[in-house]
């Protein structure tokens, strides 16, 4: 950027001259603090998130709440979401609506959109976060058809059909929208004893890229968030084994395991206007693991 000569002379002649030159262009609304606050704000936005009653999903939902979002908390029918609802309201969520849904019930996927629209105080939804997921661990030669089908149904088929449902709604109504799919380090690595999980997480990032190719020019951003090794219920077999714990820590450049709250910032970024030019990509919340 070339600056006018008068501006350069102002710098040379003192600070007051600089501000005299800039004063017509300065507004309190363009200060860095105000601009960044607006850029990352989710006030007035309705976010639908699955799998958010514990672990990484709860961390994500906490970030959404602190950014002022209205949250539709999609949870398993067998789960009581009240503890998380109270927490999110205390953190600043505009409203929190529970919505019971079994991710393995593919026939009920379309009801998530219709019920979300009924619950929304604005009559619309702005963001879909596909975070619900399961894992079945055993050697591939012992991996049953039932295990394969169950994992692929919850981790891949349900998220795709939710994305398709929400995407069609936004396209049909000329609305912008954002979809965030939760991937895994196994989106890029083979892993051990989790062939169906690896297949599902590799595929969900491919779905992210395919949907982005189709929809990004029409106002719909689709991205993947990649968790690393996070201290949750799913990783207690590592956390409670000192030898395993040390092996994994040595492979993480930041030399610590992640915690659910590490997802607050990334999920707010991906859900807000701050990420409007990001689509078809991923953010790895992994302490640098994938850089090795």
Automatic annotation (TrEMBL):
InterPro entries: NAD(P)-bd_dom_sf (IPR036291), Sc_DH/Rdtase_CS (IPR020904), SDR_fam (IPR002347). Keywords: NADP, Oxidoreductase. Transmembrane segments: none annotated. PROSITE patterns: ADH_SHORT. One of its GO terms (molecular function) is oxidoreductase activity, acting on the CH-OH group of donors, NAD or NADP as acceptor. Belongs to the short-chain dehydrogenases/reductases (SDR) family. This is KduD protein. It comes from Cyberlindnera jadinii (strain ATCC 18201 / CBS 1600 / BCRC 20928 / JCM 3617 / NBRC 0987 / NRRL Y-1542). The lineage of its organism: Eukaryota, Fungi, Dikarya, Ascomycota, Saccharomycotina.
């Amino acid at each position: 950027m070339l600056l006018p000569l008068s501006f350069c002379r102002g710098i040379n002649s003192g600070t007051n001259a600089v501000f005299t030159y800039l004063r017509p262009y300065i507004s309190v609304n363009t200060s860095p603090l105000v601009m960044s606050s607006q850029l990352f704000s989710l006030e007035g936005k309705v976010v639908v998130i699955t799998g958010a009653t514990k672990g990484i999903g709860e961390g994500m939902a906490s970030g959404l709440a602190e950014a002022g979002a209205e949250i539709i908390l999609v949870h398993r029918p067998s789960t009581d979401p009240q503890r998380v609802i109270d927490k999110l309201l205390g953190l600043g969520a505009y409203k929190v609506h529970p919505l019971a849904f079994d991710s393995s019930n593919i026939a009920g996927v379309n009801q998530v959109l219709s019920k979300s629209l009924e619950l929304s105080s604005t009559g619309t939804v702005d963001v879909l976060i596909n975070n619900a997921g399961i894992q079945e661990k055993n050697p591939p030669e012992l991996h049953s058809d039932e295990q394969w089908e169950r994992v692929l149904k919850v981790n891949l088929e349900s998220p795709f059909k939710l994305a398709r449902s929400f995407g069609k709604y936004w396209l049909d109504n000329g609305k912008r929208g954002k979809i965030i799919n939760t991937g895994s380090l196994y989106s890029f690595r083979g892993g051990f004893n989790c062939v169906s999980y690896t297949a599902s997480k590799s595929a969900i990032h491919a779905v992210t890229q395919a949907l982005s190719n189709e929809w990004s020019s029409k106002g719909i951003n689709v991205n993947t968030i990649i968790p690393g090794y996070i201290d949750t219920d799913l990783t207690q077999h590592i956390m409670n084994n000192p030898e395993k714990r040390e092996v994994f820590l040595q492979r993480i450049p930041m030399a610590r395991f992640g915690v659910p709250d590490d997802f607050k910032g990334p999920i707010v970024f991906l859900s807000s206007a701050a990420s409007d030019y990001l689509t078809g990509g991923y953010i790895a919340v992994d302490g640098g693991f994938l850089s090795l």
